[in-house]
């Protein structure tokens, strides 16, 4: 018997913690320099470190933080003893052979940890006061393995012997003879990995590995002995994870081990996350909240179709889970539009080559095609990744608008058709190198561009009619705008990670460099026609040329420190420095040789520096989890118009607190209360004081005087049985940026301004139903009451009650076909400060897997009933404007998408999941 634990009183615990802190002088020096604000925040929380040890607790309630990587049971027991008052008693001979344990870093109860560590052994445990006894199981449950052996003619084989032998302990073995029907049944005494062997004098024998986990019966598929190299597909029965789980600050969708693990892709799985819906190029949460997408904690900053193409290229087989943060914490950048969804990839990479290829074709009135590939190669201490994306996707939309100028009574009908011949390329490469078991360095580079013959054409036709005789055209004009658009978006990143201890503590240091370049020349020509269709005025010609560059440097350092008794400290600092240079030339003609119009041409320089510090503390108690955080950001920016000499500038500090409280009533009931404050800064292009023409009477103006705006968000979620989610929340925003639409005569001018305060109260419900064995139905409903106070003279107060409903039906059909029917409806809402019409949509998809699930084909039919026609109305004292979008490239199509996954070699972990620090700055380009 062995007793290796020490009982710490309050004074000894405090002294031990102080020795840990002062041992690392560099950490203390750095922490003192981070921020006076963070220092105060941490000092107020030191009382948590000196909390008195609680005696007499149950191991089912007491939590510790633990991480094991190929380590022994003895090591795990010592780590538990070091963090608790419990002492273990056992026979050393019974546990010394139990090695190779892998336990993911996290906070768990001692009972849960012991269950996981002993699940494949013949040991059990029980608590006597503060002592835990490990002993052999007195009664071992038998597990049954059943199956049938057939010959090449699909008939039973005579004299077949089946043996099952434990891989860990060859002394555990069982054998049986198949009966005259080829059927066999045998018993094994415990869970674990086994080798199953079938032998017959008339056919070749074979050996295959199987795994027995929790189920008492393992039913194998038929074994067909038909050749010299017979293989039975590996059978593994696992403990099924709950599809949805709730931690303190996020909701997790566990893809691995679920019905969604095979044959899907990252984009389609967004529709499984409670409250999330993919509609064309938009991914929304609860109907109207935007979504920020991460993969392995790295922000994916691709626009529109490029983002969809990238997400489709990630097969569900490589996805571990989705993490949804409806209320991001202080460790995340304060600037977040909406919620964060992080796709966590499996960290098991194989020595050799692993990856997938992906292709697709779809028709929406134009032919569209895409292709992508992803490869991972692991050798020794190196892990290399690469990906490539290509898409040729003609983009288009068609708008119908009707407007009336109240002062003149003139009514006009306008059609605007936009079409873009577009293709894009994306590259990504990354290399990680393990210096040691604890230290990893890595570099990555990605680039997105649209090379080649890229152009778009916008045609605008406007018919003017007198209000009295609305069906008679008095005059009209037609505008053609031809644009040759180029851009390049690059980011290089380097990181260093040091795992400080076995509890999960780590230190990350990173640097990113981002470059964005833009070239956007446009030729605009307008013809003026009278009521007879003849030109009555010489055509107007205008040539504009926009050139822009942005360069951003980002450096970050982040510490995550795990202390005793489930106490975790996160602290860090981040610096972002950006410089942008945009110019726009106006010329009176149709090319860049025409005379320059100096009255409208401009060049604008903008510099911005953001310095941020943050700290969070999280603590787990008996049935409570608490996390508090504070982020401080200093924003210093200045802008200057080279042409006019006009300048703007601002330098200020802002605080962004966050807090989470989770209460677990039972395993089936949990409440989470969350709060945060966030900021939204204007994009760099919004600040450029340029005028962009679509036609002579439709323009957009930049606004260099835009200011950031701030939001507060509080939510209370109830999670029932880790499946059903009910959330009530309140959000408010002050001085928000909206697009204001005004007119000068018949010219319509759009301009972004800080012009309203808004708030909303909402209730959201997510309910998944298993209607039959072959029919699953998931639905989410969000009800909101929204109010907007628009600045002006007089102020305008508006409110709406809105509803958003979506549902997905998933049918499992014979022969491994799957049918999915999904729909979405959003009631009338606000379009910025104006009225948006209600809209709905129905989509269908059929999926089939081939080649042992390595090849997946999906046929999609999007919006076959042409229900999705969004629209809005601007109604002011000066004019009214009603706009309906009749056609849109990405919402209505039929297409087929194919993915093939390949892998070789043995599994090995893992590639570090490190945040590329520059991604938040990159989103504003």
From TrEMBL:
InterPro entries: Beta-barrel_TonB_sf, Carb-bd-like_fold, OMP_b-brl_3. Gene3D superfamilies: TonB-dependent receptor, beta-barrel domain (2.40.170.20). GO terms for molecular function: carbohydrate binding; carboxypeptidase activity. It holds the Pfam family OMP_b-brl_3. Residues 499-900 form the Outer membrane protein beta-barrel domain. The keyword Translocase does not apply. SUPFAM superfamilies: Porins (SSF56935), Starch-binding domain-like (SSF49452). The keyword Membrane applies. Coiled coil: none annotated. Its main location: membrane. Keywords: Carboxypeptidase, Cell outer membrane, Hydrolase, Membrane, Protease. One of its GO terms (cellular component) is cell outer membrane. It is found in: Cell outer membrane. This is Carboxypeptidase regulatory-like domain-containing protein. It comes from Chitinophaga arvensicola.
